[in-house]
Amino acid sequence: MKKLFPKSLLAVVLCCSAGISVRAQQRDTLPPPPPGRPQTDITPFTLSSPQQFEIAEIAVTGTEFLDKSLLLSLSGLAVGDKVVLPGDHFAKAIQNLWGQRLFSNIAIYITKIEGNKIFLEIELVEKPRMSSFTFKGVKKTESDDFITKTGLRKGQVITDAIEQNTLAVVKKHFAEKGYRNVSVRMEVKKDPPPAINSATVIFWVDKGHKVKVNDIHMVGNYALADNVLKKKMKDPKETPRFTLYPEMADAWVDSMATTDDYWKTKSYLSPTRTLQKLNPYFRPNFFANAKFNEVKYDEGKEKLIAYYNSKGFRDMQIVEDTLYPSAKGNLNIELRVDEGRKYYFGNIIWRGNTIYSDTVLSRGLGIKKGDVYNLELLNKRLGNPPGPEGGDIGSLYMDDGYLFFQVEPVEIGIRGDTIDYEIRIQEGPQATIKDIRIAGNEKTNEHVVRRELRTLPGEWFSRQNLIRSQREISQLGFFNPETIGINPVPNMQEGTVDIDYKVEERANDQLELSAGWGGYIGLTGTLGVTFNNFSLRNIFRKETWDPLPSGDGQKLSVRISSNGKAYRSYNFSFTEPWLGGKKRNPFSVSFYSTYQNPNAFAEYYNQPVPNPGAYFRVLGGSVSLGKQLRWPDDFFSLMYTINYQRYKLKDFNYFGLEGFDNGVANNLSLRLTLARSSVDQQIFPRSGSSFMLYGQFTPPYSVLNPDKDYKSQAIQEQFKFIEYQKYRLNAEWYVPLSKPSGSDHKSLVLKVAAKFGYLGRYNNRTTLSPFGRFELGGDGLSNFAVYDRDIISQRGYPVYYTSNPKLNPESSGPPPGYSGFTMFNKYVVELRYPFSLNPSSTIFGLVFLEAANGYRDFKEYDPFRLRRSVGVGARFYLPMFGLLGFDYGIGLDRIRPGGGLKDAAKFTFMLGFEPE
């Protein structure tokens, strides 16, 4: 067949950016070709006589950046395909390519026909690509946020979807801030040559005015007051505004301001409460000037319905809500409600229960006939769904192995305003634990995690044991407590359950490193390292060192500290938490050595030294062994500790005792510690309590030698073997004040603590030891541990102060005759809130109130004469360095007449631990 179209083109289908339109033509000729294409005179087919052709060649033109073979594949056309003309093959190809949203124009042309062979050209016009983009009318921080959320990037094809997505992101961002009339316009500017098919995109943003809620008008509420309902709908962070109704209120205020009633009332009420007390038209407006947030508004309506339901109005519904502008352009909301009638619980019948009697279940449910109807409360008491705190019917069954337990409350009758219920129970069989699987412990050996679990293969399933296991894993300190996962996998056919534990390792080894030049004392510094997941058994296996063998849950600590010529200290400790590997029997050993030179300053400056060669040396160690108790419960533990210190003094008098500046003193003691801890985690406890009581006793040398006159001997001889008895009591409680919120379960926590200490003699024939006493004040970071003294911090006060104000200097040195305290009281109240619970940087802030005091003897002791302080602080837990703390405390009893808070304030710092 001869060429029908030399150097010419026949338009078959043309598709522009306005869309695709394919329909059958009801005439005998094809439509004319587009402008610029020559008209052909002869066609081998008509609409009334279609013919079949074979595609011989396909050319793709007009693309700059896209792969032509890929585009051809996406079109669905291929060389060798049979097509019928006229037909819909080319229309489908255009639809396939158009769906990629990469082109502004697509056309398919027939370039040549030879016999039954057809040659095609797919002409594409690519949409331009973004060479750059910017947001106008917004802050840079907002612009950066929009770029992140929209995923915009250079080189991206400019499509309608980009504009729509950007518009949605920007509107959502500003809607959360109270802007309801946001407009976004995308402007595309083609780049001049030599740029190829690229453009600059500008997003013009006009956020408009912030829309605030002026007021909410409630209509149809007769049982519950407007203000109560508004309070339930509002964001707890919003503070209420107050409004006077009606206009006569202004005149009323003017008249009342001169009456005796106003002034009498004001004397014991705040101004706001005074107006409310005296003026019935004065009401709080919980929404005045609060920004409007549509999401929170919908949540508020849900809260409103839930609150009505909890008060017995189960049929309550919001009939209509209307939003209209106020005179100042803000938003008024009118809510029209239908309360319905108030309902009460009637008879509650139990069905299907064989394990527990109706009486036991009714007592656990805690809902009686005649109580106000509350379906949410009913489901909560039934454990539907199970709550984390337990105490419901579901927990009662699941703690006894009934994992397959199901409960369904069914209304069986409504008599007027009374609803009868039948509680249908399917107890199911008790589930036996089959397999325990642990995942995520990349560093910690599996047996370390497994030995902490309260869920053991072969035992009955227990929900309470699951919760306890989660706590024990968290208490290890090796894993992120926020991501510990527990997943029971039940198998009802076999009556078994597998339990999957998932943990996330976190760094918990700590490094302490500091250095400096201290002038007269020379080079100072501290080098300390603590490995909290050490493995002693792998100490000789070189391949396990990274940097030391780890994974067995043991603790190894080494610390060297020096203040040049003035002071140096060496400390070593090791702890095995499960001695023998079968029971929680913690075993610890520690050794330490210290040296102190009181003449370092004088020697450096060549000043006269009254006692050349003076020093104070301590060599000590301890061994302890503990065991977990079963009674009163298994949160209790008992610890036995043997301590020994050898003190050597040469011309060194620190203790305020005449004549005690030379000699050797030996301190051998036994400490018995009874402790109980149920706190949920180590770093930021949210719940639970901690209790510790210990008694420390040296051998009663004076009791064993009743005929010896100790006080007639030299002081060095009296303290050759130190004698005392010592008692300490610490108690702490953690109470969550808000429900956990956010993905990391942040909540406000109240901490309450009380502490007490006493040091005494066995009899009056001896001099009370200067060792083992208490130091009170400061931040707890001191060298008093050298002298075997307990350091009790109090924020806002210096280290040295006593219950006698005349002996309280503002200097750093001790007052005359000061030798430490033999008794103390301390009480603490803290409000804590976490800013970050990330395991790599846990941060929380706090405000505190403290009251404490130290006493030299029983005659001076008065538990109600306390030094008070208030302040704020922050805690930072960094795995590499442990706990860092900063507190700013104001000693209220340090405030002097005419003085300011600055003179009574003290900034304290803590490192590595929470001070006592």
From TrEMBL:
InterPro entries: Bac_surfAg_D15 (IPR000184), BamA/TamA_POTRA (IPR010827), D15-like (IPR039910), OM_assembly_BamA (IPR023707), POTRA (IPR034746). Keywords: Cell outer membrane, Membrane, Repeat, Signal, Transmembrane, Transmembrane beta strand. Residues 1-24 form the signal peptide. It is found in: Membrane. Residues 431-506 form the POTRA domain. Gene3D superfamilies: membrane protein fhac, membrane protein fhac: a member of the omp85/tpsb transporter family. The keyword Repeat applies. This is BamA/TamA family outer membrane protein. It comes from Chitinophaga chungangae.
